[in-house]
Amino acid sequence: MPKLKSPKQKGRRFEAEIAALYRHHHIDDSAQPMPMSGAMSFHKGDLLKKNDHEFVDECKNQEKVSLWECWSQAKAQAKGLQKPVLHIRRNHTPPITIMDTDDWFQLRVELMQLRRQVGID
Question: Is the C-alpha dihedral spanning 78, 81, 86, 87 positive or negative?
């Protein structure tokens, strides 16, 4: 694997990786890294997703992360009913995703309800 020239390139590669996961799982087949690094006033976050507006993604690919600063940034980018999601990765480790506890439990409740509807308990 070629060595990256800057932390910015490392971050952009991670954003592309997370966008690819959105496409791979068919959550949003249009997902891509945000052009101009979120400089557009109408949309904040690191990913541009045309079909998934419920969550706003912040991606950090750093060896040392100030978790609470990153989480504050993710929360500040979520507008209205949007929910913040923080994806973190460091060298040689798989990424992790952080979200609000209430949002996590709401997703679990929705999943349980869907399973009941289709007869999977």
Answer: negative
Pair 98, 58: CB distance under 8 Å: no
Which stretches in the chain have pLDDT values below 50? none
pLDDT digits (tens, 9 = 90+) for 47-81: 999 988 899 999 999 999 999 999 999 999 999 99
CATH architecture assignment, domain 7-118? 3-Layer(aba) Sandwich (3.40)
**Can you list the alpha helix ranges (DSSP code H) found in the chain?**
7-24, 67-77, 101-118
Which are the contacts of 46, defined by CB distance < 8 A and separation ≥ 6? 15, 18, 33, 34, 37, 38, 57, 58, 59
Rounded Cα gap, residues 114 and 51, in angstroms: 21
Model's pTM, two decimal places?
Answer: 0.86
Domain extents for the chain? 7-118
